[in-house]
Amino acid sequence: MEIQTFRILIVEDQTMFRTFLAEWLSSQKRFVLAGSAGSAEAALEIVESSRPDIVMADLQLPGMDGLQFARAARQLRPHLRALVLSSLTDPLTLTRVRESGVEGYIEKDATIEQLTVAINTIADGNRFFSKSFIETLTREGTRSQSVGKILSRREQEVLAHVLVGKTSKEIGDIIGLSPRTVEFHRANVMAKLGASSFADLVASARQRGLA
Predict the structure, then answer these.
(1) Residue 9: how many CB atoms within 10 A of its CB?
(2) How do the domains of the chain map onto residue ranges?
(3) pTM
(4) Which has the minimum average pLDDT: 54-63, 139-148, 191-200?
(5) Positive or negative CA dihedral for 24, 59, 95, 206?
(6) Nearest by Cα to 41 from 24, 17, 57
(7) For the domain 145-207, what is the CATH code?
(8) Which of the four pLDDT bands, split at 50, 70 and 90, describes residue 18?
(9) Which of 79-88, 159-168, 198-207 has the highest mean pLDDT?
(10) Rounded (5°) CA angle 19-90-210
(11) How far apart are the C-alpha atoms of 147 and 208, rounded to whole Å?
C-alpha cells in the first residue's frame, strides 16, 4: 500500500535549528521537504511556488511572526495546516496561539518523539497541543481575572510585545499598525490592568502569570 506523503515547509530564523528540522524530516517516510526559510516573507514565496500541505513555523520570527505568517499563508493556500514551535509558554502568548486557529503548538525543547507525534497528528487531520500548553490555558481559564476576559485580542498582542521591550514603532512594524494606534492600544492595556508605568505593567502581568 502506497504511503500518502505530505509536503512540509519549515519557517525558522535560527539556521542550526532549521537545518536540524530539515534533516529530521528526511528520515520520515510520510513527509517531503517543500522548502525552508528564515523569515515569513521568504516563506510566503515558497507557499506560492511549492504548495506545501503543512508548515512548521517558529512563533518568534523577524518581522511578521509565526501566527501572522500562518494567517497570510492561508490566504494563498486555504487548506494549509500549521504547527507552531516556540520557547514561549506564558498564558498571553498561548492565548494568542489558541485564538489564531493554527492546528498545533509544541515547545522547542520537546523530544523528537513528541515532535514526531505532533506532525503526524496534524497530517492525520487532527490538532496537537502540548500537555503544558493545555495545562497553562486550563489554569488561566479558572482565574476570575483571566487576561482573555480583560483584554481584546489586539491588546493581548500589543502587551506581548511590550513585555519583551519592543517600542511602539517596532510593534507597529511587526503587526501592521501605526505607532499612534499601538500607543492607543498600549494606553488601553495599562488602564485595564491598573498600571501607571512600565514597572506597574510588568508587575500586573507577573501577577497574572504573563511575565
Answers:
(1) 25
(2) 6-139, 145-207
(3) 0.71
(4) 139-148
(5) positive
(6) 57
(7) 1.10.10.10
(8) very high
(9) 79-88
(10) 145
(11) 8
